Amino acid sequence: MPPLHSSDATPTCAVHGVCRMLQNLLLPRLLKGERPRVVLAFDFRGPNFRHDVYPEYKANRGPCPEDLVPQFKLVREAAEAFGVVQVDAEGYEADDVIATLARRALDNGVDVDILSGDKDLMQLITLTGIKPSVHMIDPMHFDRVDHHDVVKKWGVSSEKLGDVLALAGDAADNIPGAPGIGPKIAATLITEYGSLSNLTAKADMIKQKKRQESLVEHAEKVLLFRKLVTLDDSIPTSNMTLPSEYQDVTSLRM
How confident is the model at residue 183 (pLDDT cuts 50, 70, 90)? Predict the structure, then answer.
């Protein structure tokens, strides 16, 4: 999308994109007279619990692009104008808020669609045939992402994806993983050993020498990285900026 600005030169590209997504997502349902349940989750500004576990978490990221800074407020104002509930939680990331609300929705028999391209959120996708269910929606093309897509992309089920992410690492979050082990090898190892904990416990049994040495040397760190990629789905209600009239997720309607 080309750079966009308001008449006073305020950058508006990001807020324009958010508005277009919300419009495409919500307008057809609103025109039918429906009141969809929609929540816009934000990262809490400041450190979160992952920094307590691993101070280097996301330390490789530079400052926020200057053109985005003035748009955060505009995005919130746009969401409010749409009537969309906005939630963040002190000490947590948006992914944790989404995980918590998704868990509560499932507990209440409500299906969940997560509009995001974030691979970490794929951990929440439910197995095929499970009801109620969690799926993701590609924000660019609005394609549905289900458990089959997770297995096709990562080589493991959504339940094992966290193991693969911890083992292979995530440069975007400054999680190095185990040296010499990428996503494909990680998926192969997790499939063979069943879980990351079992793999690290039996690292000395790995046949390939380089992989064995890497896992033996970095087993403790890899288990730490597993904590970093695990989404917290139990944020207390008091920690979240939920509407005053909130009772449960079924009440989060526009």
Answer: very high
The tokens describing 202, both together, are 């039996």
Confidence grade of residue 254 (pLDDT, cut at 50, 70, 90): confident
For the segment 14-42, the average pLDDT, to the nearest whole number, is 93
Distance spanning both ends of the chain, measured CA to CA: 29
Please list, in sequence order, all residues whose beta carbon lies within 8 angstroms of the beta carbon of residue 137, skipping any fewer than 6 positions away: 113, 114, 115, 116, 143, 144, 145
Element (H, E) at 217: helix 209-229
**In terms of Cα–Cα distance, which of 152, 159, 153 is closest to 130?**
159
What letter does residue 48 receive in the DSSP assignment? Answer: -
Question: What region, left, alpha or beta, does residue 155 occupy, with left being phi > 0 and alpha being psi -120 to 50 degrees?
Answer: left
Q: How does residue 110 score in pLDDT terms, banded at 50, 70 and 90?
A: very high
- Count Cβ atoms below 10 Å from residue 118 Cβ, excluding itself: 13
Q: Which residue do the tokens 């033996």 mark?
A: 216
Block residue for tokens 């920094």? 51
Instruction: Give helix then strand counts, H and E, for the chain.
Output: 9, 5
